[in-house]
Amino acid sequence: MRWNFPFFKSGSLFPANAIAVDLGTANTLVYVKGEGIVLNEPSVVAMDRETKKIKGVGLEAKRMLGRTPEGIIAVRPMKDGVIADFEVTEKMLRYFLELIIEKHVFRVKPRVIVCVPSGITEVEKRAVRDSALGAGAKEVFMVAEPMAAAIGVGLPVETPTGNMVIDIGGGTTEIAVIALSGIVSDTSIRTGGDEMDTSIVQFMRSSYNLLIGEPTAEMIKIQIGSAAPMGEEREMEVKGRDLVSGIPKTVRVHSSEVRDAMQQPIQQIVDAVRRALEITPPELASDIVDRGIVMTGGGALIRGLDVLLTQETGLPIHVDEDPLTCVVRGTGRILDDEAKYWSVLST
């Protein structure tokens, strides 16, 4: 359901206690109207295996990944941009919202906008809505992540001009062509930074007989990972457990090896961008030729990815200065200027 403007023309749909949430696979960000981004934490929960009692949330829980004793588990309740574990997601969201509500002393329950993938199903939408309501929201609205990202980088989404956004998150890559406050064409694939981490784990296992965890794989990706040759190659030491002897060991890994390991998920993203361009209406395609493509999300920070996409498409690729916060910044702009962006919301 989309809101009609007259519904709130006489008053504000989002008063001072409104909150925007980017509920991501890798990180959860929260924006409070009038204040900006007040929370940026990993989407990880640590809890007791038997009692399900929460032991840690966010960064505290992420530090426990791969390090917990038998009685404690650290889980990521979001997978591929959507809720994989409803109960744990609600606990995580409740923890974050209670922190913010307590700090800002809201007198009434806040209205909440949650960013969701453009390819989300009705069942997955219901899970997001129920989680937010269960966590303490008065009312829940949703906005597609690529739309929020486009607003966040300042694109004129309300005009007839075509704007193309690639939002690469931890679990999904969203590619959308936007005009007149709507998504004209979109391509959503459940491939993102997590798939790259998994590829690195598999590469270390097959090439070096070394078992590493996802946090180590993510560190390798950030430090020496790249999508295309960038001139200066790098090396780093990687520590893990030898699969043959069972003894911890250290190996040196070259950036070209990591680049090769990440090729499959990166190629899936490139192919998705091509498919998105193929289904773009001709008039909007001409706008994209002139304006280029904007890339947001954590995946935009991978070295050389913009260069690779430019080579593959022949179009200029622009990376936002702070791609990790584009989506929640865009949702914050919706809170601050609801009359301009009312039509991008749904319930």
Description:
It contains twelve helices and 18 strands. The chain has 347 residues and is of the alpha+beta class. It folds into three domains: 5-148 and 326-344, Nucleotidyltransferase, domain 5; 156-191 and 264-320, 2-Layer Sandwich (Nucleotidyltransferase, domain 5), CATH 3.30.420.40; 194-263, ATPase, substrate binding domain, subdomain 4 (Actin, Chain A, domain 4). The strands form five sheets. Strands 3-2-1-9-10 form a five-stranded mixed sheet, with helices on both faces. A five-stranded mixed sheet has the order 13-12-11-17-18, with helices on both faces. A three-stranded antiparallel sheet has the order 5-4-6. A hairpin with a 3-residue loop joins strand 1 (19-23) and strand 2 (27-32). The protein starts with 18 loop residues before the first strand and ends in a 6-residue tail after the last helix. Residues 2-10 have low confidence and may be disordered.
Poorly predicted tracts of residues: 2-10
N-to-C span: 5 Å
Please give the radius of gyration in angstroms.
21 Å
Tally of extended strands? Answer: 18
CATH class of the largest domain: Alpha Beta
Strand order of the largest sheet: 3-2-1-9-10
| Mean pLDDT level | 89
Coarse shape: flat
CATH architecture of the largest domain: 2-Layer Sandwich
For the sheet with most strands, the description reads: 5 strands, mixed
Structural class: alpha+beta
Q: What proportion of the residues form beta strands (DSSP E)?
A: 25-35%
